[in-house]
Amino acid sequence: MSLFTNGMECTSIFFINSFIVKAAMLDMMKLQNWLTSVFFLIVATVSNAEGAFVGVNVGTDVTDLPSASNVIAILKAHQITHVRLYDANEHILEALSNTGIEVIVGVTDEEILGIGESASVAASWITKNVAAYMPSTNITAISVGSEVLTSIPKVAPVLVPAMNHLHQALVASNLNFRVKVSTPLSMDVISRPFPPSTATFNSSWNSTMYQLLQFLKNTNSSYMLNAYPYYGYTRGDGIFPIEYALFQPLSSVKQIVDPNTLFHYNSMFDAMVDATYYAIQALNFNDIPIIVTETGWPSFGGASEQDATIKNAETYNNNLILRVLNGSGPPSQPKIPINTYIYELYNEDKRNGPISEKNWGVFHSNGSSVYHLSFGASNLSIGNSLASFCVAKDDADTDKLQDGLNWACGQGQANCAAIQPGRPCYLPNNLKTHASYAFNDYYQKMHDAGGTCDFDGTAITTTVDPSHGSCIYAGSSNSTIGGRSSSATAFGPVGPFGASLNLQVSSLQYLVSFISVLFAQVLL
Ligand SMILES: *[C@@H]1O[C@H](CO)[C@@H](O)[C@H](O)[C@H]1NC(C)=O
Ligand SMILES: *[C@@H]1O[C@H](CO)[C@@H](O)[C@H](O)[C@H]1NC(C)=O
Ligand SMILES: *[C@@H]1O[C@H](CO)[C@@H](O)[C@H](O)[C@H]1NC(C)=O
Ligand SMILES: *[C@@H]1O[C@H](CO)[C@@H](O)[C@H](O)[C@H]1NC(C)=O
Ligand SMILES: *[C@@H]1O[C@H](CO)[C@@H](O)[C@H](O)[C@H]1NC(C)=O
Ligand SMILES: *[C@@H]1O[C@H](CO)[C@@H](O)[C@H](O)[C@H]1NC(C)=O
Ligand SMILES: *[C@@H]1O[C@H](CO)[C@@H](O)[C@H](O)[C@H]1NC(C)=O
Ligand SMILES: *[C@@H]1O[C@H](CO)[C@@H](O)[C@H](O)[C@H]1NC(C)=O
């Protein structure tokens, strides 16, 4: 499973394609759409299509950071196969060895200057933080800084030189085919993200962007995008329906359509990814895949952050997983899966900024979940199957089921009080539901420590919450709402859609599209 897709050459078709987009004429759009499908057919046969994945960011600004082995246990219990670190934490890198988990290691913002100015500093960085762990720790990429173009613009002149130095050091260690170098950028580098077809990078970064894209193309690396519909929605001041941000169905009066391509955007996430593809194309690069290195939704915030709720976070991230694991790309690049890293594993209580900044995690640092997240969406996944509940199989052998029940409530130390007569989960009084309750209780307590959902083949995991009435199963979102801290000041994972939002929301899609075409021509 590679993060990076090999390149392909489709320049001539691509040129025609982008020419027609600029022509922006309705009757040529059919032709353009046709050409687009031809283009993607070619892409499909050239690139090796692999399953999509959802990984997770592991930020460590946590007061009681779990031990590295506990971090790994939680990743394994949830069958998370891809992680991104913000630095090169030696304990975590060590603990990731021989786990099969693929790792992006981070060059911190502070390290970029030294690496950019000196090839030998870059070489020592690679020796110490990459080569030392390979191959037992499967490092597949290095992310250089975090949104540095927008957060510390003065670093821009050394960014690509730093990436080049790191790449050269990888070449010298013969690791360049296994480890790719890129840099995560925020949506703020794009000046006009909607409609996606007209998106361009803010021209202040022209030369850096050009060098960067050239580097990514030459080294077969991906563009790393941090895409936050949370910010696109909250800063959009009500122009966007929240359903659009949360991957929920849009009513027929709120369809969001790119007037130039007539592509429907079912989610802001897709629109952000596509805007980035189009911005890359506007600089005449056409075969650089995008991976989303960060996206997510905070589960709690301050008084002015009312959209930061457990419900929204749970909805966003679960729908995101379903979206990504369906394996399709955004409308303009349907064959390139949008591999994505959720921000983030743990709530980072030590982060500065608004209250939401401390509440992006899926888990509390003690390992309990903030809300229920199901990775179990798809067979396209390469093992992301967090099916959170463990229940008895329908056709399980009765004797084995009884043995399993006895074991779970005994040696397995499941809390079986709720299935005793008179208690909430006693009814329906049958072996299968009692075993399910006990199996699940054991599984919830023990899976982080390696406990499995098997019970001699009588048990199976499921994403469906088996709770009913007052009988609440362990791990149910109704039983896991935790407390949160409160304090803070100002900043976030730097955001998404910039200031100028030229959005079209309408039932009369063609009429609006036509008006927008005119509008888009004014912008062009
Ligand atoms: C490391 O990840 C790469 C990319 O997916 C994969 O091809 C390779 O087999 C992995 N190596 C190990 C040792 O797991
Ligand atoms: C482009 O970037 C410059 C410098 O960061 C900034 O001042 C300007 O507002 C940006 N333009 C747009 C349209 O985002
Ligand atoms: C950036 O590139 C675009 C497209 O090539 C060009 O139109 C624009 O003038 C350039 N801006 C700067 C500041 O160089
Ligand atoms: C990039 O991919 C091409 C085509 O697969 C290959 O020939 C080239 O050696 C690769 N370059 C690097 C730096 O990985
Ligand atoms: C995958 O998701 C995209 C975007 O929501 C959708 O357009 C497409 O139909 C889905 N594909 C499948 C096979 O479900
Ligand atoms: C995934 O599941 C669907 C429906 O069960 C099936 O049609 C499809 O072939 C499966 N795909 C893979 C890659 O196994
Ligand atoms: C969880 O609680 C909500 C609201 O109290 C309720 O509507 C829902 O049915 C409960 N879910 C389960 C699985 O019990
Ligand atoms: C874990 O931490 C959260 C937040 O501090 C708390 O609400 C929850 O009760 C804790 N869970 C356990 C099992 O200690």
Structure description:
With 524 residues, this protein is of the alpha/beta class. Among the domains are: 3-38 and 495-523, no CATH class; 389-462, no CATH class. Helix content is 36%, strand content 9%. It has 16 helices and eleven strands. It has helices at residues 11-23, 26-46, 68-77, 90-95, 109-117, 119-131, 148-151, 156-172, 206-218, 229-234, 242-245, 268-282, 310-325, 398-409, 431-446, 509-523, and strands spanning 54-58, 82-85, 102-107, 138-144, 180-182, 184-186, 223-226, 290-295, 340-342, 389-392, 459-462. The strands form two sheets. It has a nine-stranded parallel sheet. Helix 5 (109-117) crosses helix 6 (119-131), helix 5 (109-117) crosses helix 8 (156-172) and helix 8 (156-172) runs parallel beside helix 9 (206-218). The two termini are 39 Å apart. Mean pLDDT is 80; it is low at 1-49, 376-387 and 480-524. The structure holds 2-acetamido-2-deoxy-beta-D-glucopyranose (8 copies). One 2-acetamido-2-deoxy-beta-D-glucopyranose (NAG) binds at residues 1-2, 100, 102, 135, 138, 140. Its main location: membrane. Keywords: Cell membrane, Disulfide bond, Glycoprotein, Glycosidase, GPI-anchor, Hydrolase, Lipoprotein, Membrane, Plant defense, Signal. One of its GO terms (biological process) is carbohydrate metabolic process.
